[in-house]
Design goal:
single chain; binds NADP nicotinamide-adenine-dinucleotide phosphate; alpha/beta
């Protein structure tokens, strides 16, 4: 499972698993985070063979990028794939801004925080209301030509917005909410991306921890997006994975991550982590060689979730 995948039409390649870093320095998003854990998480990821790190300005308004920038100074930059995102305007209450000049400035500032001279994947984090999407992407293409970024991405764009952004065929990668519990991207988005050779990175692959199997019926209140009946259904599907996990001598999270890695519509799975031990565990999903029958059984177990 150590194969490399290619991002869109670029020469950026990545292993199928990376690290999500919204809990690295993301103090504005999560309570009780410690910077020291963030440093340890990133270090553990790279030491255990992860080369792709997914961050964003919004994770700690620059702090996540700074921590990653510090850690990567001790490693061979050419072996790493750094993905970051911007859109939130610090001079306008963090409202989304896709103006070409804003995006160019945001990339320059991200480069400073990351202490590097190029970004492998740069995503527009969220669409704004006024900038034509293809004009925003054209600005990123200028940055690509200048060698500041290597791949052009968009995130949280609707399919119509992705189509507008990709009018000139310049979008390499899309990041969006997708998991075994949130599957509507399969209907229209995946076929469009496949046809246009655009890579896909799902966020919330572990449904913020729910798909690790660590929660039980007693935790239903923590997941208010589900009715009690739906939550029981989620737990029942996870129980089916738990049975399979025994067979692979693996954890539920490892089998779920292996499922994404076997799915041809997904290019990189980027589970987040609060502690280094979670990363150490998750990266071992690369060793789970999920058989076709088990892949389809998991697909089926979660087929009711949209
Ligand atoms: N583009 C976007 O707009 C966007 C939006 C959201 C996320 N993202 C990116 O996608 C990445 C993934 O999303 P996510 O991190 O929010 O959610 P996730 O990957 O679904 O869940 C990660 C969380 O699950 C728990 N966890 C992970 N491994 C575990 C293990 N082995 N055992 C037990 N618990 C474990 C940890 O939280 P606890 O320990 O706290 O339970 C961890 O923070 C983010 O880090 C970020 O880089 C992007």
């Amino acid at each position: 499972m150590d194969e490399l995948i290619k991002i869109g039409n670029t020469d950026v390649t990545s292993k199928k698993i990376g690290l999500g870093t919204n809990k690295v320095g993301g103090h504005n998003l999560f309570k009780n985070l410690k910077d020291e854990d963030g440093y340890a998480v990133v270090k553990e990821a790279i030491d255990s063979g992860i080369t792709t790190l997914d961050t964003a300005y919004m994770y700690g308004v620059g702090r996540s990028e700074e921590i990653i920038g510090d850690v990567i100074q001790n490693y061979d930059r050419s072996k790493l794939v750094i993905a970051t995102k911007a859109a939130q305007d610090p001079d306008n209450d963090l409202k989304n801004n896709n103006d070409p000049e804003f995006l160019k400035k945001a990339v320059d500032e991200a480069l400073k925080r990351l202490k590097t001279d190029y970004i492998d994947i740069f995503y527009i984090h969220f669409p704004d209301e006024s900038t034509p999407k293809n004009e925003a992407v054209a600005a990123l293409n200028e940055l690509k030509q200048a060698g500041k970024i290597r791949a052009i991405g968009v995130s949280n764009f609707s399919l119509a917005q992705i189509k507008e952004a990709n009018k000139d065929g310049l979008v390499d990668i899309v990041e969006d909410n997708y998991s075994l519990l949130h599957r509507n991207a399969e209907k229209e988005l995946f076929p469009y991306l496949r046809k246009n050779n655009i890579s896909f990175v799902p966020y919330f692959p572990l449904a913020s921890g729910l798909l690790t199997g660590k929660y039980s019926a007693a935790d239903a209140k923590k997941f208010s997006q589900y009715t009690p009946a739906q939550f029981d259904q989620v737990l029942a599907a996870i129980d089916q994975v738990r049975k399979l996990a025994k067979k692979y001598d693996a954890t539920v999270a490892q089998v779920i991550l292996a499922w994404y890695m076997k799915n041809p519509d997904i290019s990189i799975v980027i589970p987040g982590a609060r502690k280094p031990a979670q990363v150490e565990q998750n990266v071992k999903a690369l060793n789970v060689d999920l058989g076709n029958t088990d892949y389809h059984a998991i697909d089926e177990a979660f087929s009711d979730f949209e």
